[in-house]
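Question (not urgent): is this output format expected?
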Amino acid sequence: MIDGELKYQLGKEIFTLNPGQSATIPLYAHHRFFSTSEKPTKFLCELNPGSKNFENALQIAYGLAREGKCNNKAVPKKFSHLAILFEMSQSYLGGFFSLIQPVLKFVAARARRKGVEKELINRYCNSSE
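Got this back:
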């Protein structure tokens, strides 16, 4: 944790990290990160093993947000973009929302066949910025 306050949920337990603290999430463990603070939060997340698809998903998500293609909660306005991001990042919904996971998978596959994933990668991941 670098600055601010970060909460993470591992299973049903919620933990708080402050600057200088760290945590390791076990591989494939159901988890989420969030903040309830009004102040900015800055943290470093290391994926091991690394994942190019996860990295691309982050770049695409930030690119979509930067261009105003997300709502005020940073969720892509196009459902196909959201579906592709879930697939690329290997993110899964928990609880009641897990019922829409098959829909996300179907929409992502359809969008991928139409070339949407490739367009997103070319637009947001292949730049030399």
